[in-house]
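Q: A reviewer asked whether we had any structural model of the full assembly, not just the individual parts. We don't, so I'm hoping you can provide one. Inputs are below.
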Amino acid sequence: MMKTIFKRTPTLKDCPTHYCPGCGHGIAHRLIAEIIDELDIRDRTIGIAPVGCAVLAYDYLDVDMVEVAHGRPPAVATGMKRTNPDKIIFSYQGDGDLASIGAAEILHAGHRGEQITVIFINNAVYGMTGGQMAPTTMLDQVTATTPKGRSAAEQGYPLQVSELLATLPGTIYIERCALSNVARVRKTKKAIKHAFELQLDGAEGLSMVEVLSPCPTYWRMSPAKAMEWIESNMTKVFPIGRLKG
Amino acid sequence: MTEEGQTSKGAGKRILMCGNEALAESAIIAGCDAYFGYPITPQNEIPAYMSRRMPEEKRIFVQTESELAAINMVFGASATGKRAMTSSSSPGISLMQEGISYLAGAELPAVVVNVMRGGPGLGNIAPSQADYFQATRGGGHGDYRTIVLGPSSVQEMVDCMPLAFDLADQYRMTVMVLADGILGQMMEPVILEKKPGRELPAKDWALTGAKGRKQNIVRSLWLPEGSLENLNFKLRDKYKQVEKNEVLCEQYEIDDAEIVVVAYGVAARIVRSAVSRAREEGIKAGWLRPVTLWPFPTKQTSRAADEFRIFLVVEMSNGQMVEDVRLAVNGKSPVMFYGRPGGGVPNVEEILEQIRQLTLRPNK
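A: Here is a predicted structure for the entire assembly that you could use as a starting point for your response.
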């Protein structure tokens, strides 16, 4: 007898991906889809896609979804959750979206303690627009707009958003994870699931999971090397672990 | 809590209210589920009123961190099928333009109130009509329109709110109420009552959780070749329907008039007095007042110009609506302009003097 030991989870659509080889979005999408199915909340979940590579997240996640202006997902999520407290609202945001242009929106959604779940994909670079510097770009990292590498004097230090949000009374759960190996992916899933469960339980506050994610294309390295680079470089500035909750 | 369709603010009775508060109460009667806004003068009475009344009605009030957040909260609530609104004044409305463009692209209903103040920049907090271009041309990026209503009394601040919500839902568009600091601040007797609304299409596009149906997506990004052009053609056809069906305007004694004064909003009230005075002096004057600023009453204006008449456009700006009047008149009659920008408000005597000069009647 043949036994199925691994299959596509229903909320993940059966379609070709537009993401680059080695990109982390595919893994993150799958984790979210698995969690939605495991918690059986597909029919009450609304997702918010950001501006950036993940703008087409609704092509992969088979839940009600909206695509919104750059950086504004936490404000849109606020409008949704306040008027629909029984729905599960999550935003999926990149580092440019959340940490740069949307810094005010995430800060104040956290500050107000909005009961939403935020998945923050940090790959230290702007992917969709061609590999420009992000607020989370590492020092000395070469990007399209830091040809000599990011310099603290010129462009400032990488922004640690999770640490910042953890200081707010309105946030209830902040954890930083990574997709750099199987063990880390498993932990990421656990963290995202916990963030969804908190919202399901009606916990009063915002939960966010930061996910260090590879961008081999704009890190100019192979997918395998990109995974190593997360471990050897990114985790030094963005330490893995639970910051709050 | 109050009973369905009623309001704690003396339903059906004549009561004295300022424009901002009357508008806010009218929005509640019209079924506004959520209000999101950021403080700015001269519309602060709206969020203050909503912060008290919306919780009483078990509805949503959020003071936002910015106008960007406010319009995006409106976007979020609207995407789930709720009736949502925001209000602001000129500089804040500029900040909302990004969101209004996204609302247009995503075809979401929304009601935005602009209680205009003087500009450009921080300007001042005096009443103004300087945002006409921004409102009627769709101040954000892309090829879109918003329906723009121009109330001219506190009662009309009340009356335009149920209409705004109905139009927004019917056409899945942003409806902007273009008021000004005078209308927002002044007190007049008003009657607040719930009237039957329009029959509206079901919001089967709304994000409510994909229960027993396929996934709904609300979006404004259309990458495949031709798909965005198709969306824009669809929007164009929708806007044509609005132009055909929703024009509102008032006219007075135009038939025998040698001069027609065109004005909207609070300026139209001053014009009305000036025209009455001109008639008393034997000048055949009439007035035309656009109530919808977009769609503009092009046909009505054009018809008035079929016989040779002098058109005088009066605005609290350096001349914005005058361009729509010129387009409508299309060279058939001369179109003159008198304006007071930067918070200036014309008085009756000023306008009357313009009428006298243009009709070659020297002041006695």
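A: Points you may want to mention in the reply: Chain B has two domains: 14-200+219-245, 249-358. Residues 14-200+219-245 of chain B form a domain with the Rossmann fold fold (CATH 3.40.50.970).
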